[in-house]
Amino acid sequence: MHIHKVGYPIILISLLLVVLILFFVIWLWPHKHTVHIVCIVLGLMWSIWTIAFFRVPHRKLQAEADSVYSSADGTVVVVEDVFEPEYFKDIRKQVSVFMSPFNVHVNWFPFHSEVVYLKYHPGKFLIANHPKSSLLNERNSIVFRDTQGREVLVRQIAGILARRILCFTKTGVVGNAGDEFGIIRFGSRVDFYLPADTKITVKLGDKVKGKKTVLAILN
Fold it and tell me: Mean pLDDT in the chain?
């Protein structure tokens, strides 16, 4: 496991703020040791959480043919047939994974494929498990196409705490299942729009892991 490079500036700023606040508290109340201890504990908890948020686990993936792997860690909050209006403009199977602030927030390629569509949409910051967050929130849509022409749209969605979607890929890039393509800062969600004849292998409430859990089997 290592720390993602985009987290270094935020971690450094957080640590400096914690130290400054502790110095200020000790200077303001020099003899209130209980207050000092509480502030130190809270500062340590905040620092540990900030560092842990940007963790990148080392996971090996032996990808199986036709399998679509989760691009994110989290909980399955949607499994249904929906009309996808942005790219496919037809009925697709949707699987949505909600990422809490305690999940790993790195995003990975769901299968060996080429990025054929990429579009960023500014928007609101509703709580990520809100039914309309996939249409109203800040989001980034990526379509992955394999050599057989099968396409899956993956949508990174900002949440009430997530204020920055980072995408490191671009159209024309070919990647293997498990290759990193982005990260979302703080609680968020990832939607998957799959072909209508896809076999879904997860259900509502399932805990999934990126690069580990098979969400679906393509026909």
Answer: 88
Give every CB contact of residue 177 below 8 A, 6+ residues apart in sequence: 61, 63, 67, 69, 108, 109, 110, 111, 112, 211
| Interatomic CA distance for residues 101 and 54, integer angstroms | 10
Q: Exposed, middle or buried: residue 135 (CB in 10 Å: 0-12, 13-18, 19+)?
A: middle
How much is the pLDDT for 125? 61
Identity of residue 189: R
* Burial state string for 47-63 with b = 16 or more CB within 10 A and e = fewer than 16: beebeebbebeeeebeb
Model pTM score: 0.85
* Contact in structure between 9 and 185 (CB atoms under 8 Å): no
Q: Which amino acid is located at 9 in the chain?
A: P
CA separation, residue 118 to residues 25, 54, 125, 140, 154 (Å): 48, 24, 20, 7, 10
pLDDT tens-digit readout, 43-98 = 899 899 889 888 888 888 888 889 999 999 999 999 999 999 999 999 999 999 99
Listed ranges 120-124, 152-156, 164-168; the one with the highest mean pLDDT: 152-156
- Give the span between the Cα atoms of 54 and 103, in whole angstroms: 9
- Whether 47 is a known active-site residue: answer no
Average pLDDT score over residue span 4-27: 88
Active-site pick, 113, 133, 134, 188:
188
Q: How far apart are CA 160 and CA 141, in angstroms?
A: 19
Secondary structure class of 146 (helix, strand, coil): coil
What's the Rg (C-alpha) of the chain?
Answer: 20
